[in-house]
Structure formats: C-alpha cells, structure tokens
Fold this sequence. Notes:
Blueprint: H1 41-54, H2 63-93, H3 106-138, E1 141-143, H4 151-165, E2 172-173, E3 188-195, E4 206-210, E5 218-220, E6 230-234, H5 235-241, E7 251-262, H6 275-286, E8 291-297, H7 302-311, E9 319-322, H8 334-337, H9 354-357, H10 362-368, E10 371-375, H11 381-392, E11 396-403, H12 411-421, E12 425-430, H13 438-450, E13 454-456, E14 463-464, E15 467-475, E16 478-486, E17 498-505, H14 508-522, E18 534-536, H15 540-553, E19 559-564, H16 570-581, E20 585-590, E21 607-612, E22 617-618, E23 622-625, E24 632-636, H17 642-646, E25 648-655, H18 658-672, E26 678-681, E27 687-689, H19 701-710
Parallel strand pairs: 1-6, 8-9, 11-12, 12-13, 14-25, 17-22, 19-20, 20-21
Antiparallel strand pairs: 2-4, 3-4, 3-7, 5-6, 7-8, 10-17, 11-15, 15-16, 16-17, 18-25, 19-23, 21-26, 23-24, 24-25, 26-27
Helix pairs in contact: 1-2, 1-3, 2-3, 11-12, 15-16, 18-19
Organism: Marinobacter lipolyticus SM19
Binding site for Mg(2+): 405, 435
Region (Disordered): 1-22
Amino acid sequence: MSGGSVENLSDAEVPSVPAPVEVPSAAPDVDLGAAENFFNRELSQLQFNYRVLKQALDTTHPLINRLIYCCIFSSNMDEFFEIRVAGLRQQMKYGRETVNSDGMMPEQALAEISRVAHEYISEQYDILNNVLIPEMEQENIHFVRRREWTPAQAEWVRSYFEEEILPVVSPIGLDPSHPFPRLVNKSLNFIVELDGKDAFGRETGMAIVPAPRSLPRLVRLPDDVCGGGDNLVFLSSMIHAHADELFPGMEVKGCYQFRLTRNADLELEDDLEDLASALRGELLSRRFGDGVRLEVADNCPEELVHFLLQEFKLTERDLYQVHGPVNLTRLMAVGGLVDRQDLTYSGFSPSIPRQIRSKESMFDAIRKRPILLLHPYHNFSPVIDLLRQAAKDPQVLAIRQTLYRTGADSEIVEALADAARRGKEVTAVIELRARFSEAENLELASRLQEAGVIVVYGVVGYKTHAKMILIVRREEGRLRRYVHLGTGNYHAGNARLYTDYSFMTCDESIGDDVNKLFQQLTGMGKALKIKKLFHAPFTLHSSLLSLTDREAGFGQNGRIIFKLNALTEPQLIKALYRASQAGVKIDLIIRGVCCLRPGVPGLSENIQVRSIIGRFLEHTRVYYFGNNGRPDVYCSSADGMERNLLSRVETAFPIEDPSLIARVREDLDTYLADNCQAWVLQPDGSYLQNQPAEGEDRLASQLVLLERLTGQ
C-alpha cells in the first residue's frame, strides 16, 4: 500500500516564526551565488573519507580500531563510487550534464575525483602495509603470506582448500562458448593465465575465478600449526597457492585478483503502481550495473589489465592498482577472529536518566516532563520500552511509526507486531528506498503485514526520512498523544555507534502536528496546518531561511550554531553568508560534506566550520538560533541538503523546556571546545586537525560526553 503524491505545496501553512528583522544588504561587489563561493560536493565528500582514513594513524585509538577505520574508508569509497561517481557518469552517458553551485561540469569533477581518489587510496595501502601490519606484528597478530608458510601451515591450507574452497568455486574458462561472465558488484575475482589444452582440446589461455561470497576472506590458522600468537591467512592467498588444482593438467602462469565496482543507484519512476514489485526488480539490476571502478593487484601484467578495462568499458582513469587485497573492507573481520580486548575500545554502559529509572511507566515519566536522550551515551532501551509498554497497555488504542532503517529482527519490530496481534490499530510507514536497506525493508514490510500491521510505503517521489512514533492512549475519559521524535533511525545497533537525539513528549500541539503528518503520509489531501514542527517538503526550508535571516537582523548580537551531517543547499548557504556579513557569529559542526566556504573576507569571515571524527559517528542534527538571548532550538531528521529540505518527508522539532535547551547548548559548546578530534575547514577547502595549545589539556568532545552522561 502506498500513499498519495504531494501536491499544492504552496498551500502549506508555515508555523509561527518571528518576523525577520531587516537584513543589511550585502556588499555590492560580493556575489553570494558566485561559483567560487561553493565547494564541490563530491570533492568535499572525498575530504570526509580522508579524515576517516587519518584515524588509522591516530595512536589515541586502539590498534584494531585503527585498522577498522582503514576498512571504513574502503566502505565509504565503495559507496562513493557506486552512487556519486556513478551519478556523474550517468549524466555524461545520457547527455544530462548539470552544473551545481560550484560551477564544475561532470567531466571536470570526474577528472579531479580520479586524481584525489588515487592519491588517497595509495596512502591507504601505504598505511596498511607500512604502519598497521607492522604494529600488529609487534602485538603478535600476523597476516601470514604464502612465502612465509611453514610446511605444517602449507599442509593445513591445502586441506582447507580441498575441503572448503574447491567444492564451491566455479572457474570459468574464456572461449567462444564461455564468454566473459557477468560478475557481481564488488565481488572478489581472479584472472588466470593458462598454458596447455584442457580435456576437450581447448586452448584459451585465460580464465576467471569468482570467489564465492559465502567464503570468509580471512581465516585463522589453528594454534597447533603455528608458533604462537594470532595467525591469519587471506582467502586470496589460498586460491593463489592452489589455482592449479582448479585447472588440472594445465599450467597456471599467473593468478591476479581484481574487483569491479558498479553503479548501485536505483532508478524508479515516480508514477509506479506497485512500488514494492518494482523495487524487487531493481534490486537484481543493482548487482550488475555499469562498471565505474576497477581495482587490480599491482603485479597484474599490463595486457591483462587492459583486457579487463576493455571488457568493463573503463579507462585508465577508472583503474586502481593496489599493493594488497582488493577488498580491504573484509579486514573488519579481524576484530572477531582475534581475542584482543586490549587492542579495542573498552566497553561502556549507556546510562538511563533518573527521570526514567524512577518510573515503571514510560507514560508517567513523559507526562511529568519531556525527555531528551543523547545516544549512545544514553541507552536506547527507553524507546523500545515505550513501544513495548504501549503494545501491552489496554489503554493504548493506536500506534503509528515511520521506519527507515531498523532491521527485520529488531525489538522495535517485535513490539509493533505484538501490538497488532493484541488488537491495536498499528500503522507502519516503511521507506522501501532507504539506500542499501531496500531488501531488508521489503522483508520487514511482509513480516509486519502478516502480524496485522497496516503497512504504508509513504509518498511516491518523496522518501520518508522523518523519525516519528505516535501513541494514542485513553486517559481519564479523553485521548492523549505520546510522541517520540528523533534525529536517527530506529535501529538499536546504530544507537550504540551513532550519536543521535531522542525526544519524547506528550505536548498537545506537537502530538497534533505529528498526527497530521501521519495523515499526510497515509492519506490524500492538501498539507495541513502545523503549529510547532517544521516539515519538509513544505515549511522546513523556508523556516530555516527565515530564522537565519532573523539572526542577521541582530547583527553582532546574533548567534547561529548548526550541527549536521552535510550542508549543500545553496539558498541556506547564501542565507548564512548574509548573516556572516551582518556580523553574526556562526559555528557549523558539519561531519561530512560542506559546500560552504568559510573565512572569506567580506563573505564568511564570521563562519567557522569543523568536523568531529571519533569513536562514534556524529549523526545529531541541531539548528540553534540565539534569538537575542531567547534561543530557538530545533533537532531534526534533516541535513542541510537539497534532498532533505526539498525532496523528502522530514521534521524539525522544537526543544522548548529551558533545562533541555541548556543541555543541548552545553553539548554544542563541548563540540566547539574540542581541540583534538575536530578538523577545521580552511578557505581553500582543506581541513586542519585541531591541536591543544602549549600547556592546554586535550579535550576530546566524545570522551567528555561519555564521562558527563555515563560517568565512565
């Protein structure tokens, strides 16, 4: 079941926002929209990936976690090529080139992306081979290469190959009846040079060996064939060592690993009759989209490299020859293969605020005063408890929830199914197009429908990214609405790794607003009047512009702090430029992509941009406006991007309790005081990592929050 399309956007009524004070006009010689005032989005995203890679060199992180940062860089780069690079190539392929605010054409962007990405990936392998692996050797963790195998280890590998690998590998000789196979996106493969004739007299000279995805890329050697420590061997080493057994009677002259990254973006029409069915079809095509990057071992002969490039219709610019495994993301398995807690982050226990601990009922606690949690420092369990209690409470009549990423086996899903089985009216708005979670969400939808939940797929053409729960409960003869609003997904796993705000309230106006938003998502009709929330694609963008311009009217008394994952939307950036020109002090805590250029005289000298990279993924979205001493604070599901503000269903919810406003400001000030995990954006687009001044103590914002909110 899918909702209707969004129409009559101009009819939506904007919540009450104070009328902006007249904004001083910009200097006549400054063009706020000039291309030089904006950074390229793709290159900014590469900068973020590089900051993640740099964590692999930061010795304040435990060694295994440093290796994991190196792997996360690979995962981030995979998605970057699958989506961003693929999108630019698609523009050129179909003659739909568009120029963004930075003025860079797709061809220019692809050329610069290739230059920068080659530089970063080369540095990644240098870090792996010359820093991380030697340091792990010192800790008695060994990646045992073929040339280092002892006779006992070589014999064990042979047995493992024959018992575990050989039965599931399907080598493919290349000849007229066996054309080049259609290889799955990001799969590990080998191109093999052969000499001789097979049983049928064929002499092809070449074969492809796909490594089954079911096989682990790293295997721990048993202790009885090793001299001590943790000894790991790569699947690729095993296949290299025994490739001749795949081609009996023939000579293997060379075996070289490679990996193809394909376009993984899904293209769905806006006028689909059955979104779920169309999506199932598109998920199959994702595995076999156009090639966008070829990774090859650096010892692969040039003629084989060119053969692969020609086969995948790629150029030298798309080729990445690497000194090591082509699929570094799989090295994340190291943490599970070795028991070295001394080389990983120590565990911590997320806290539960006293207000909740002292109450058996979440409803009683929320009625007393609104609750604001900051994950992962605060436990995610109160959110789950709220749903569990609602499912069992005979006074609860209805539950409605949006689901973007949650996992089909989550406790959230079980609570919704339980509520439906108990006869409550349960509606789940599931976003099927949550990137790389589509298949999981299709399964989730089926499971909930089987339990009796009404499943809605949102609004065609507008991803439902808002994080909302609405619970309707009968109390003392009337209905009361309880609401949860968040900046992050309803995913308990993410809540242990991502920083996000959870807000719970029974405020009547907010409850009414959320009810109307669900009406818009599940029904048809014009946009309804909203009292306190801002919501995209109707009022969020215009409201943020209005509040930013209002701060500009306060001049040097103005204050703006945004904490976001990304900032790309040109109109919002220009509004921030105007505020800076008016003298407003602006701090932007932008984890990833930032297209705004700070520190430019006459344009943005009052704007500072920093990115916090640490143990947890910064994911909170906060819009803070000083309002001349009476702060307006909004937490949001939306980043400062065109897609969030104009093309998705998003919410921004006000924090009105003075003590909670003070808490949010204290959190923001902690990030602004960070002198070691913060990277500051320079006017030329580079980032410099903050360092403590001489005699100054290190202040890592995440560690401060961990101690403040958990006491650990």
